[in-house]
Amino acid sequence: MHVLIVEDDKRIADALGEAMQRFGHEVAWVASGHEALEAAEKAEFVLLDLGLPDLDGQEVCRRLREQSWVPIIAVTARAEEVDRILLLQAGADDYLVKPYSVRELLARMDAVTRRAAAPAAAEASGQGSDDRWVIGPLSLDIRTRQVEVRGTPVALTRREFDLLAALASDVGAVRCREVLINEVWDNNWHGSTRTLDVHVGSLRNKLGARQWIEAVRGVGFRLVVPEHG
Ligand code: CA
Asked: Which of 85, 158, 173, 209 to pair with 53, CA 20 to 30 A apart?
């Protein structure tokens, strides 16, 4: 993803940019609201610091929203500065309070991207329904939790379905292990990551081709339509 970092503190921007790149994102950095409005056109995701030297952060948010539907996570220095309602009204998809962990940011970015991608995926497939995702020969109905490969129903357990949905929400993108575990199990889950591998294995079997789920060493997994699948 092309991530635009709007942040006037260079140290924070550098650290953030490095982390984003480590997770495979392309990064652009600007230090003011006016620059943000100019640079936003190319962005697929905006991380917006609300304390900028030139424009009020909420104003930047509002103007970005006039230009596009790019997902925006607002970042603020102190909890008391956040008026969540106003922020959401200004068009932010979520917000974080500094200091936050990269892990938390990535999880929020994933959630926001997923919400944004679900209708788009259905539209692209021409299905017209937000609940039905069609990915090559695979189709997922998020509402009824039914899965088909080439029209043949595939019976999945609850966790297997959640895992597939987490991967399918952004086809081709690498989802890191921690994020998948958080999404499919829960925040208080302290089991071994072996559980994730076991579920990936059974999902591959049930989908009928190992290639559906590609392992990215040291990071996580991604969903790929098999070439001859
Ligand atoms: Ca700032």
From this structure: 85
Q: How many domains does the chain have?
A: 2
41 is in which domain, residue-wise?
2-124
CA of 101 to the centre of ligand 1 (A): 17
226's CB contacts (< 8 A; 6+ apart) are: 136, 209, 211, 212
Report the CATH number that the domain containing residue 101 is assigned in CATH: 3.40.50.2300
Q: How far is the CA of 25 from the centre of ligand 1 (A)?
A: 22
C-alpha of residue 65 to centroid of ligand 1, in Å: 20
Give the start-end residues of each E strand in the chain. 2-6, 26-30, 45-49, 72-76, 94-97, 132-135, 138-141, 146-149, 152-154, 175-176, 213-216, 220-223
Q: Report the chain's mean pLDDT, rounded to a whole number.
A: 85
How much distance in Å is there from the Cα of 66 to the middle of ligand 1?
23
Q: Distance, CA 13 to ligand 1 centroid (Å)?
A: 10
Window from 17-31, 54-68, 118-132, 155-169 with minimum mean pLDDT: 118-132
Comparing 116 with 104, the larger pLDDT belongs to: 104
Q: What's the one-letter identity of residue 38?
A: E
**Same domain as 107, residue 20:** yes
Ligand 1 midpoint to CA 28 (Å):
17
Position 132 confidence tier, pLDDT thresholds 50, 70, 90:
confident
Q: Give yes or no for residue 80 having a pLDDT over 70.
A: no
What's the mean pLDDT in 11-24? Answer: 93
